[in-house]
Amino acid sequence: MGKGFGSASRPVRLSLCAIAKNEAHRLGNCLASVRGFVDEIVVVDTGSSDRTVEIAKQHKAKVFRFEWCDDFAAARNYALRHAKGEWILVLDADELLDAAIQPILTEVMQQQTCLAVNLVRLEVGASQSPYSLVSRLFRRRADLGFTGIYHERIDLSVEEIIDREPHWQVVTIPAIAIHHYGYQTHEIARKQKYDFAKRLMHKHLEAFPQDSYMYSKLGALYVSESSSIDESERESLSALSGEDSEPRNLKLARGIELLQTGLNLAFQHSQQDQTLFELYYHLGIAYTQRSQSESAKQAYQTALELNVPDLVKLPAYNNLGSIWLEETAYDLAIAAYERAIAIAPDFAKGFCNLGIALKAAGRLGDAISAYERAIIIAPEYADAYQNLGVVLMRLGQVPSAIANFKQAIFYHEQQQNFANAEALRSGLQDMGLL
């Protein structure tokens, strides 16, 4: 029995199931995050050539080999077949379990009618969707498993079980449970990851053409690709990958088409609010890129009416605020940003955006407070220092403004945003301030 279960009324055995390939640089941290909480670790290796297997064994994992067949659900279910616990926790090598959530998970697993648990995952480094909802904790049953070639889920088998045995429930825990570091990758690695994901998602839709969830994921990927890197980088990446670069506008159009198809299917098959939220949310992003602000606002507002955790809604509030700001509807923008930081008081970007809206509305003192709060949360936040310097300069506080500008330049360079650093430095030099 793992120590993490403390004074639980009846011990519940918990198995961690993970699949991995060449994850020696990350797997150790993942497994360490569940030490003392899980009773068993099952790692399925899908063909590693590094020290992945060795590291798994160092963490007392039971390691099994699986010949990769372009099917994530098959690999997941192979891991499930080797687990012995009453409950299953699923993590990837680039994920960590938040220690603070463990007592809550312990309580939920004691609930006699709980079949599965939806967990909030923090997408570390993700620019558009910092939180997602994933079903990663569930009872071990022979009839409960994963389906899907890519973005595999247990949802279908959970729904089938509940249809037969309606006393079962799915519980959603609104606090952050998992930290996911998969978005912190070099652009070339991200391009390779995108290509791999697209290939498997298209393959999935050939097998499951009615899956609105996969249309959401694939549409979002196309929209993300249309905006994530500039054209010169795209040409370089394309040359390295040996593929032609599809123009941005075509990627965006393809993304919107996929998302709209997903919406139509979702309404036909009464999909969960989480899937609908993702479809509307990513349509909001796509319409914003097309400068169709009314359609974008409608998509975000529809998404916000759905029954999903507030943390998942946070980026929709933030993006909606940015549209209002662009339209000089400052009060509406401020309200949206304030809602975002009320949901996540440590959301530095939300405070910085709030500062921008407050500055635009002429509330300079409040803007300073917002920027300072962003810097307290994220001390290396270059844009917050730069925006704070602008407000201080407007108020005539030149020495303090220059000090903040210098901090902004320093952190821009630290984060390899050399163009931003040089633009700010040149501007200050032109003004005779450097």
TrEMBL record:
<keyword id="KW-0808">Transferase</keyword>
<dbReference type="Pfam" id="PF13414">
    <property type="entry name" value="TPR_11"/>
</dbReference>
<dbReference type="InterPro" id="IPR011990">
    <property type="entry name" value="TPR-like_helical_dom_sf"/>
</dbReference>
<dbReference type="Pfam" id="PF00535">
    <property type="entry name" value="Glycos_transf_2"/>
</dbReference>
<dbReference type="InterPro" id="IPR029044">
    <property type="entry name" value="Nucleotide-diphossugar_trans"/>
</dbReference>
<dbReference type="InterPro" id="IPR001173">
    <property type="entry name" value="Glyco_trans_2-like"/>
</dbReference>
<feature type="repeat" description="TPR">
    <location>
        <begin position="277"/>
        <end position="310"/>
    </location>
</feature>
<dbReference type="GO" id="GO:0016757">
    <property type="term" value="F:glycosyltransferase activity"/>
</dbReference>
<feature type="repeat" description="TPR">
    <location>
        <begin position="314"/>
        <end position="347"/>
    </location>
</feature>
<keyword id="KW-0802">TPR repeat</keyword>
<feature type="repeat" description="TPR">
    <location>
        <begin position="348"/>
        <end position="381"/>
    </location>
</feature>
<feature type="repeat" description="TPR">
    <location>
        <begin position="382"/>
        <end position="415"/>
    </location>
</feature>
<feature type="domain" description="Glycosyltransferase 2-like">
    <location>
        <begin position="15"/>
        <end position="135"/>
    </location>
</feature>
<protein>
    <submittedName>
        <fullName>Glycosyltransferase</fullName>
        <ecNumber>2.4.-.-</ecNumber>
    </submittedName>
</protein>
<keyword id="KW-0328">Glycosyltransferase</keyword>
<dbReference type="Pfam" id="PF13432">
    <property type="entry name" value="TPR_16"/>
</dbReference>
<dbReference type="InterPro" id="IPR019734">
    <property type="entry name" value="TPR_rpt"/>
</dbReference>
